[in-house]
Design goal:
It is built from 22 helices and 18 strands. It is of the alpha/beta class and about 625 residues long. Helix 16 crosses helix 20. The structure holds adenosine-5'-diphosphate-glucose.
């Protein structure tokens, strides 16, 4: 094909696809408009492609042949059939997306089967969903890690099947894998495969504790903790990303797999995978906030990180403001085209869709379904804590992390008890705090500070056996956590900055009795969705203390009205919707990619070779 004709075709196809893409993006309920946009765009591309490859004389000959009923040398039937098939797939998807049916595990499975032809998903996440640990009695036990990412993604994998590639960090992890480092999970259900990647202590220190958690984690959270960036950590980070990228490619059984990368541990992996599998559909989700551009510039390798991430086909954040911050960073640090209206970045010929996908919890929550009724949970928890039946109970459930605002929470409880003595001896706050990242000094210091603060407040207000704060510094398995959620009169989330915060949504999902009050920091992504919570600024100790008092004295009808509204919100915007929307977007991208491929293949096949130049 002549270069000029190829270029013209490429432009037309591109325009066609962009029109279709634009129509899809602005779709919502406008199904017919989308359909028309798509059909017109594809038809234009098809006709011009077909017409463009023949000269005028050929065109007339083909027309005459067609009229005579004899097959033309450049019969477009195959092309039309192919394109029609792709248009049908695309419009099926648009119609499926426009349905008002709620998102469930079943619908997610169906979406995968229909839109991605049942292709399994390859998930890459640092944290594994199940750890095998050697217990003191020598038995191997299974543990669920304290991680919002795992809580969200695990139900999605149970629904979708596929392979989860994660760091094998349990003490007995090696004992249970096969020769491919695979183990089927969940134990006893075997819904999907866990592939474990092994890291040396040195690698873990540099990549995980160093670059990811002393560098990127504080960089992305506005919590006034200085990020630490070390050259050797950065080297480990890139190398370990390469290891995970290689593992994902090994697990792929096709040249265009769907690979779903999780979080700030894998900023470099999208491009590393793209280099090995150019046709892969790569989804990346960043589970923490993305900082503003000045803050991001603190990182010594901003361009490398952005380029790594732009290997993704789709890049998801929790909120539009995180997306905008990311686009600002691309604008500042890369030579790239940023299309803000279309949420697109085009960099070195690759297009990445950058969109908000607010994460959530499964609905109904299987831990809530297994938990005893609220009355029983309350009785059991009060008995464990040796509290009377009329005690007022608050709960906090967090990893022990400086972003979660534990000290601010304790300060507000102290002020509450100082100002409102009627709660002395009546209100007990139980803090479940999972040890986290304990190799990092800042986390060990936080542990010290919170422990001392709790001791001081308890010493100040103690009455007989009663203490205002019960600090349970330990990992808790989900059944215990859900028992506390159900037993409590209030749940307090006081993060100083949080991408989403799933504890808030878990609490709501646990309260089918429609009771209990959620106090929620305004600096969480969840605050944008759960407006019926008591929103607090954790830096404002006075108002947070007042909010505790409001929660503890809230009438039952008001609790029910607020909880009902929040339950509706979380039920509808659940984690299946989160995953489903990303999968639908991925399916559209794949179909668009296939249309382009089909047109190119047909044109290349049908075009006679150019005469050799003399
Ligand atoms: P996290 O910072 O881990 O998640 P979050 O979303 O609140 O925060 O999830 C915490 C999870 O750990 C919950 O599932 C909770 O039940 C569990 N957990 C908390 N304390 C525990 C304990 N003591 N023992 C055992 N389990 C405990 C990151 C981001 C968040 C984002 C999620 C998901 O920081 O902003 O919401 O990813 O994207």
């Amino acid at each position: 094909m002549r270069p000029i004709r190829r270029a013209a075709l490429a432009v037309v196809v591109l325009v066609g696809l962009l029109v279709a893409n634009q129509a899809l993006r602005t779709s919502g309920a406008a199904g017919p408009i989308v359909f028309t946009g798509l059909a017109v765009a594809l038809l234009c591309a098809l006709l011009i492609a077909w017409a463009g490859r023949a000269s005028r004389r050929q065109w007339i000959e083909e027309l005459r042949a067609a009229l005579r009923g004899t097959p033309a040398p450049h019969d477009a039937t195959a092309l039309i059939a192919d394109v029609r098939r792709h248009v049908e797939t695309l419009t099926d998807g648009v119609q499926a997306g426009a349905t008002t049916q709620p998102w469930t595990a079943r619908r997610l499975r169906r979406t995968l089967a229909e839109r991605l032809h049942g292709e399994g998903v390859l998930v890459v996440a640092n944290r594994e969903p199940y750890l095998h640990e050697r217990a003191p009695d020598g038995q191997i036990v299974v543990r669920h890690p304290a991680s919002g990412l795992v809580s969200a993604l695990e139900p999605v994998m149970r629904a979708c099947s596929g392979v989860w590639i994660g760091h094998g960090s349990g003490t007995a992890d090696r004992q249970v894998v096969d020769a491919q480092d695979h183990v089927a999970v969940p134990p006893g259900e075997d819904s999907y495969v866990l592939r474990r990647v092994w890291l040396t202590e040195e690698e873990e220190r540099g990549y995980y504790y160093g670059f990811a958690n002393e560098g990127l984690w504080p960089l992305c959270h506005n919590v006034h903790t200085r990020p630490v960036f070390r050259r050797e950590d950065w080297d480990f980070y890139r190398d370990v990303n390469e290891r995970f990228a290689a593992a994902a490619c090994e697990e792929a059984d096709r040249e265009d797999p769907i690979i779903f990368l999780q979080d700030y541990h894998f900023a470099m992996a999208p491009r590393q995978i793209r280099e090995r599998l150019p046709r892969a559909t790569i989804l990346s989700f960043w589970h923490i906030p993305w900082p503003n551009v000045e803050r991001f510039g603190i990182c010594p390798w901003p361009a490398e990180i952005l380029e790594g991430m732009l290997g993704s086909s789709i890049l998801g954040f929790h909120t539009p403001s995180h997306c905008n911050n990311f686009l600002d960073a691309v604008d500042r640090f890369l030579e790239a085209r940023v299309d803000r209206a279309g949420n697109l970045v085009v960099h070195q010929g690759l297009t990445t869709l950058v969109r908000p996908y607010p994460i959530s919890v499964e609905w109904p929550n299987h831990w809530a379904l297994q938990a005893p009724p609220a009355e029983d949970c309350r009785r059991k928890v009060l008995a464990e804590l040796k509290l009377p039946a009329d005690a007022l109970l608050g709960v906090g459930v967090d990893r022990l992390d400086y972003t979660k605002g534990l000290e601010e929470r304790m300060a507000a409880i102290e002020l509450l008890l100082e100002r409102r003595p009627e709660f002395l001896g009546r209100f007990t706050f139980v803090q479940l705090a999972a040890p986290s990242r304990t190799l990092i000094g800042t986390y060990r210091e936080l542990n010290e500070q919170v422990t001392q603060l709790v001791e001081r407040i308890n010493a100040r207000f103690a009455q007989g056996r009663w203490r205002p704060i019960v600090f349970l510094h330990a990992h808790h398995e989900p059944p215990a956590i859900f028992r506390y959620y159900r037993a409590a009169d209030l749940c307090c989330v006081s993060s100083l900055h949080d991408g989403m915060n799933l504890v808030a949504k878990e609490f709501v999902s646990a309260r089918e009795d429609e009771r209990g009050v959620l106090m929620l920091s305004q600096f969480t992504g969840a605050a944008g969705e759960l407006s019926q919570a008591l929103l607090v600024n954790p830096y404002d100790t006075e108002r947070t203390a007042e909010a505790f008092a409001t929660a503890l004295t809230m009438s039952v009808p008001e609790q029910e009205a607020r909880m009902r509204a929040m339950r509706q919100q979380v039920a509808e915007f659940n984690v299946y919707r989160w995953a489903g929307r990303m999968i639908e977007d991925a399916a559209r991208l794949r179909e668009q990619d296939r249309v382009t491929q089909t047109l190119e293949n047909h044109v290349d096949r049908e075009t006679p070779p150019e005469p050799a130049r003399t």
